[in-house]
């Protein structure tokens, strides 16, 4: 499957470096510990400026999803259909994710999910989410 | 407010304009100025979307305007269709300018297409690469294939359906009724891109799925062309021979996660808190029940039920019954998108819907409603109420 890849210079950033090492880390506040996504210089909860990166549990609930059937780029013709998800992490932030290519689940809003990091190469991996206890090998 | 919309102008809507966006913009501005009955030299202000490729400088120089004493920009595209009007009104009320033109020119079919991922992707070493910092298609969502606004709308739709327990069949009934009703409006509208193509419910249901649960006919049209709107003080408007329309209230309202593409907001089954509508209606001095005709920014059809509920035109969860019983159609309780909407007239980041609200209040719509007030919004991020002068 063809996939959209962040530009090489972006893969040096912590979010992608941690994923390449197999783990989902999020930007977090130094003062109150609140997680935020996408990363930013200021905590939207306490307005403290200062950040660090910390691992999250990988647990999330499904907020919405769509099966994309129409490819919006010529190079994605063989990628459809694919499933895009909107998930809320146990730690609070929302993320866009997806169902790993080739895996199929009955989805319903509210479903409990867990993170499954899939590596594409040494520098690039993506945090997919799949239903808890249904992780396919 | 103490401002009016004095004129509207446009080029033809097409899929291939054959001319530059600058030329389209100039044509639309000249048409709007002629419609308002003012002299081009009276234009002393311009407002535009930052997304528009045609700058204020290009317009100023191409038209040879004697001066601009105000020019302003609003971020994103249609999110700010009413926000740009609000900005023009504020500038006029502050005395910064007296006659402001809001314009939008785009070759969105023959040029860069908003429905395609090419806009935010490049091809490097045989791979699709993204370095976009903000949605749609930012680097945290594009790798999962979330690339264009129409896919985001599918996420809103699923969250909405789940919240109210609507089945996919009920979704199709509801959204299909919007697409079919608006196409019939377009069939009577000589400006509409799809004026000659009819749409039945059977054809709607046979439309291919683009991004579940949305089908082909749930999506707006990529369009070439330009539109312009002239805003003046109410006092100046009274002196013009044109039929002007009063701006009763125009505003912006964004909240965390709601812009640019409503990805990370707290709730996804609704797009704006009730407060946004309360503020707007209070400013305008009318209630939702007093609105006679409405334009909802229908980049996809799901925006219609969500706007109906977000602004209290129907109770929460009541949009399905309202729409499937013809509430938005001719003679309905609240006719909606009587030009055919972005689904069937064309897509100008909301300016064509504002223009239809103006036509309704002037009594010039091809699908005329007996009306004193007209409402317009894009998912509450900006909204407006116009009144017959
Ligand atoms: Zn904090």
Q: Can you tell me about this structure?
A:
The complex is a heterodimer of chains A (137) and B (389). Chain A has one helix at 14-20; strands spanning 4-6, 25-29, 35-36, 51-55, 59-68, 82-89, 94-98, 112-119, 125-131. By secondary structure, chain A is mainly beta. Chain A has one domain (8-131). In chain A, the strands form 2 sheets. Chain A has a 5-stranded antiparallel beta sheet with strand order 7-6-5-8-9. In chain A, strand 2 (25-29) and strand 3 (35-36) form a beta hairpin. The longest helix of chain A is centred in the N-terminal third of the chain and has 7 residues, at 14-20. Chain B has 389 residues and is α+β, with helices and mostly antiparallel strands. Chain B folds into 2 domains: 3-110 and 221-388, Thiolase/Chalcone synthase (Peroxisomal Thiolase, Chain A, domain 1); 114-147, no CATH class. In chain B, 32% of the residues lie in helices and 19% in strands. Chain B has helices spanning 21-36, 56-63, 81-93, 149-164, 168-187, 201-206, 234-238, 274-284, 303-310, 319-324, 341-344, 351-362; strands at residues 3-10, 45-49, 70-74, 99-107, 122-124, 127-130, 209-211, 214-215, 224-233, 245-252, 293-296, 373-378, 382-388. A 9-stranded mixed beta sheet of chain B has the order 3-2-4-9-1-10-13-12-11, sandwiched between helices. In chain B, strands 5-6 form a two-stranded antiparallel sheet. The mean pLDDT of chain B is 96. The structure holds zinc ion. Zinc ion is lined by residues 29, 31-32, 34, 43, 45-46, 48 of chain A.
Please specify the SSE layout and strand pairing.
The complex is a heterodimer of chains A (137) and B (389).
Chain A: E1 4-6, H1 14-20, E2 25-29, E3 35-36, E4 51-55, E5 59-68, E6 82-89, E7 94-98, E8 112-119, E9 125-131
Antiparallel strand pairs in A: 2-3, 2-4, 5-6, 5-8, 6-7, 8-9
Chain B: E1 3-10, H1 21-36, E2 45-49, H2 56-63, E3 70-74, H3 81-93, E4 99-107, E5 122-124, E6 127-130, H4 149-164, H5 168-187, H6 201-206, E7 209-211, E8 214-215, E9 224-233, H7 234-238, E10 245-252, H8 274-284, E11 293-296, H9 303-310, H10 319-324, H11 341-344, H12 351-362, E12 373-378, E13 382-388
Parallel strand pairs in B: 2-3, 2-4, 11-12
Antiparallel strand pairs in B: 1-9, 1-10, 4-9, 5-6, 7-8, 10-13, 12-13
Bound molecules: zinc ion.
């Amino acid at each position: 499957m063809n996939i959209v890849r962040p530009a090489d210079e972006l893969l040096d950033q912590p979010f992608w470096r941690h994923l390449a090492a197999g783990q989902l880390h999020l930007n977090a506040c130094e003062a109150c510990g609140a997680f935020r996504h996408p990363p930013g210089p200021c905590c939207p909860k306490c307005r403290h400026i200062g950040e660090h990166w910390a691992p999250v549990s990988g647990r999330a609930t499904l907020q919405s999803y769509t099966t994309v059937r129409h490819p919006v780029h010529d190079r994605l013709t063989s990628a459809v259909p694919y499933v895009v998800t909107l998930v809320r992490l146990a730690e609070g932030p929302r993320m866009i994710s997806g169902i790993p290519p080739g895996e199929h689940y009955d989805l319903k809003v509210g479903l409990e999910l867990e993170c499954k990091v899939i590596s594409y190469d040494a520098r690039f991996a993506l945090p997919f989410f799949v239903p808890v206890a249904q992780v396919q090998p | 407010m103490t401002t009016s919309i004095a004129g509207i102008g446009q080029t033809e809507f097409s899929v291939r304009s054959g001319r530059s966006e600058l030329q389209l913009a100039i044509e639309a501005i000249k048409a709007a100025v002629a419609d308002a009955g003012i002299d081009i030299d009276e234009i002393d202000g311009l407002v535009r979307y930052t997304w528009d490729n045609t700058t204020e400088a290009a317009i100023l120089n191409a038209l040879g305007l004697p001066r601009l004493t105000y020019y302003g920009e609003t971020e994103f595209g249609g999110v700010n269709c009413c926000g740009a009007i609000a900005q023009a009104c504020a500038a006029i009320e502050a005395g910064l300018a007296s006659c402001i033109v809001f314009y939008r020119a785009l070759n969105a079919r023959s040029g860069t297409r908003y429905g395609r991922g090419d806009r935010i992707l490049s091809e490097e070493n045989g791979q699709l690469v993204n370095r976009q910092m903000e949605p749609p298609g930012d680097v945290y969502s594009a790798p999962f294939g979330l690339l264009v606004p129409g896919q985001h709308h599918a996420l809103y739709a699923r969250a909405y359906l789940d919240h109210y327990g609507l089945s996919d069949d009920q979704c199709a009934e509801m959204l299909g009724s919007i697409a079919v009703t608006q196409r019939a409006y377009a069939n009577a509208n000589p400006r509409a891109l799809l004026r000659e193509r009819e749409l039945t419910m059977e054809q709607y249901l046979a439309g291919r799925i683009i991004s579940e649960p949305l089908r082909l006919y749930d999506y707006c049209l990529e369009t070439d062309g330009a539109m312009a709107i002239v805003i003046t003080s109410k006092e100046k408007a009274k002196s013009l021979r044109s039929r002007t329309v009063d701006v009763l209230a125009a505003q912006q309202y964004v909240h965390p996660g709601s812009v640019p593409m409503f990805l990370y907001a707290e709730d996804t089954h609704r797009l704006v808190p009730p407060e946004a509508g309360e503020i707007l209606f209070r400013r305008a001095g009318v209630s939702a029940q007093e609105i006679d005709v409405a334009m909802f920014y229908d980049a996809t059809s799901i925006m219609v039920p969500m706007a109906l509920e977000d602004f209290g035109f129907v109770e929460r969860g009541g949009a399905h019954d309202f729409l499937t019983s013809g509430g938005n159609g001719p003679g309905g309780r609240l006719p909606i998108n009587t030009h055919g909407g972005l689904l069937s007239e064309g897509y100008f980041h909301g300016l064509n819907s504002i223009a239809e609200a103006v036509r309704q209040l002037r009594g010039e719509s091809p699908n005329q409603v007996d009306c004193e007030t007209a409402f317009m919004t894009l998912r509450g991020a900006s909204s407006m109420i116009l009144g017959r002068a």
